[in-house]
């Protein structure tokens, strides 16, 4: 402890973080890097593999029900009109020409000071391997002093050869490059994590999911962090996982980290608690808003309260889909084929437009922007377009019927037969299984993911919210603590993390909506969202780095040999300890 009193924080990070890799996997992106770094790598969590199957899928995913039903469409229109009344803008089908509202045109950069320049179009990914023979021929010709005419002929021959059918496709492509592959190319895109869970389905078997996770992580470690397989026994891994992961999924990821990636030791912490540490907080209501899932959990004195956990099945990508629907409904979208499911490059474009132009504010919000069209392998086309109702899509966080999240089929039931419960030491509560109900109906006693809650694994998990807005989830989470002193503190210590937290105008909207959601009989009259000390996108990763560096005892760390030989079993003494129970050492250091 004398060392902790005298050491400079930057020195501590440098000394203890140089051999600690922090991995924070998400549904859309993975944040990974050495704990000694200021910011992690942020890489799209997907992989594209070359395929010769006919017919083939461009995207191998669970997005089997992306069509909006008539009932959902009516609910979406109703939600739009409710939002319009709050924002004081015309209703969905109200003719703009017949209203007296003066039209406001937003700046071309959408008020975003970081987007003051025109964003270029994305380029299609080159899916062919580089031909080493042609490059070596060029080098040898130059070294021998070949004259320019002969060299030109050689280049022409190489060009013809490159354009022939003899070129080899890359076997596998990772990250954003995988998302920018032309639909005409013989590749299948896979996303191993969707909606906060491993993306297991009848079309995407468990073994393929785990192989893809291993391939993506191994590629990043080798090519981006320059940590080859033979040197990884000198590194430890901190795995920062979403609250949505269950024990079986965590165990599979631990096996990848220790058995396949060959780290010497590893430990698991949850995103909510790591986010609190990343912002230097001991007590907070952490709201993690990712690309596909939004989760809420309360932290008290450095301990996560499991019964306060809430999960909402929507995120930033749903706002992007709603952005496209809004523009098409108002007939402002150009006559182009934009399909974010079949063409992931369109999702990249929509995400960028959303981040540049969408914000929450009263009054009509329009802007002029550049929309790009990506047609099968052709160069991108540019369309100058008036974008309208830009403040409506992010309000879907509070009115989720506007977003219409996709329906997913359930994974195989055998996936949940896990007789080695990793959480048995920290959970001593039982929730009754809900009664059998007709298809599509879920009793109010247990609201949650409809595709996961029917399985017995959730008999030992807290209840999860569904079809409620962000304000209701935050309010319900805080009020479930049951103590007025803690509730008041939490309502004044709301922390927004994740990419969606960067939405302009979101902070005052959360404060206002949560305050109006608190029941009138509760003696609470103040709601405050705390300003982040770090980039909201990386604060969970940074918190994981801090937890790993300050965990001097490392009693809960699992060593590779022990994991491979014994795994997890009752009485092993090396059981997985999740982040609900932590040593006070790290928190004392942060508060000092």
From TrEMBL:
Pfam families: Actin. Gene3D superfamilies: 3.30.420.40, Actin, Chain A, domain 4. Residues 102-163 are annotated as: Disordered. InterPro entries: Actin (IPR004000), ATPase_NBD (IPR043129). Residues 116-132 have a biased composition (Basic and acidic residues). Belongs to the actin family. This is Actin-related protein 9. It comes from Prunus mume (Japanese apricot). The lineage of its organism: Eukaryota, Viridiplantae, Streptophyta, Embryophyta, Tracheophyta.
């Amino acid at each position: 402890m004398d060392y902790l009193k005298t050491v400079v924080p930057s020195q501590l990070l440098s000394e203890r973080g140089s051999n600690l890799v922090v991995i924070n996997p998400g549904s859309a992106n993975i944040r990974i890097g050495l704990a000694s770094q200021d910011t992690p790598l942020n890489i799209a969590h997907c992989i594209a593999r070359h395929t010769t199957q006919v017919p083939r899928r461009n995207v191998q995913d669970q997005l089997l029900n992306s069509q909006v039903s008539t009932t959902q469409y009516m609910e979406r229109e109703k939600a739009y009109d409710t939002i319009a009344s709050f924002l004081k803008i015309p209703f969905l089908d109200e003719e703009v020409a017949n209203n007296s509202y003066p039209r406001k045109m937003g700046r071309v950069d959408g008020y975003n000071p970081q987007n003051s320049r025109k964003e270029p179009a994305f380029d299609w990914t080159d899916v062919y391997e580089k031909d080493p023979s042609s490059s070596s021929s060029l080098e040898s010709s130059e070294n021998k002093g070949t004259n320019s005419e002969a060299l030109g002929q050689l280049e022409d021959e190489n060009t013809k050869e490159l354009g022939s059918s003899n070129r080899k496709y890359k076997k596998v492509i990772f990250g954003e490059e995988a998302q920018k592959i032309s639909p005409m190319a013989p590749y299948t895109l896979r996303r191993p994590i969707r909606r906060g869970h491993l993306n297991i389905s009848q079309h995407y078997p468990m073994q393929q999911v785990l192989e893809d996770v291993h391939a993506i992580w191994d590629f990043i470690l080798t090519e981006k962090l320059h940590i080859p397989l033979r040197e990884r026994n000198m590194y430890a891994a901190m795995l920062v996982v979403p609250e949505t992961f269950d024990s079986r999924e965590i165990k599979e990821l631990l096996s990848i980290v220790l058995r396949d990636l060959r780290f010497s030791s590893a430990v698991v912490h949850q995103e909510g608690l790591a986010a609190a540490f990343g912002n230097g907080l001991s007590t907070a209501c952490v709201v993690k808003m990712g690309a596909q899932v939004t989760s809420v959990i309360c932290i008290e004195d450095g301990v996560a309260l499991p019964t306060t956990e809430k999960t909402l099945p929507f995120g930033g990508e749903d706002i992007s889909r709603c952005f496209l629907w809004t523009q098409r409904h108002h007939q402002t979208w150009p006559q182009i084929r934009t399909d974010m499911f079949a063409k992931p490059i369109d999702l990249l474009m929509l995400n960028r437009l959303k981040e540049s132009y969408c914000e929450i504010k009263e009054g009509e919000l329009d802007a002029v922007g550049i929309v790009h069209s990506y047609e099968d392998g052709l160069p991108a086309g540019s369309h100058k377009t008036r974008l309208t109702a830009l403040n409506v899509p992010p309000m879907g966080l509070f009115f989720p019927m506007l977003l219409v999240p996709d329906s997913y089929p359930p994974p195989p039931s055998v996936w949940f037969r896990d007789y080695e419960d990793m959480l048995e030491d920290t959970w001593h509560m039982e929730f009754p299984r809900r009664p059998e109900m007709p298809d599509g109906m879920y009793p109010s006693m247990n609201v949650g993911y409809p595709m996961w809650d029917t399985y017995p694994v959730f008999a030992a998990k807290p209840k999860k919210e569904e079809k409620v807005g962000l304000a209701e989830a935050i309010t319900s989470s805080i009020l479930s603590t049951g103590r007025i002193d803690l509730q008041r503190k939490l309502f004044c210590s709301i922390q927004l993390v994740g990419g969606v937290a960067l939405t302009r105008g979101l902070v005052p909207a959360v404060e206002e909506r949560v305050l109006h959601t608190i029941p009138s009989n509760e003696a609470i009259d103040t709601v405050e969202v705390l300003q982040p000390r770090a980039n909201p996108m990386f604060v969970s990763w940074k918190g994981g780095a801090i937890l790993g560096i300050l965990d001097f005892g490392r009693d809960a760390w699992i060593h590779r040999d022990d994991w491979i030989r014994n795994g997890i079993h009752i009485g092993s003494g090396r059981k997985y300890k999740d982040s609900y129970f932590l040593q006070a050492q790290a928190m004392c250091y942060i508060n000092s």
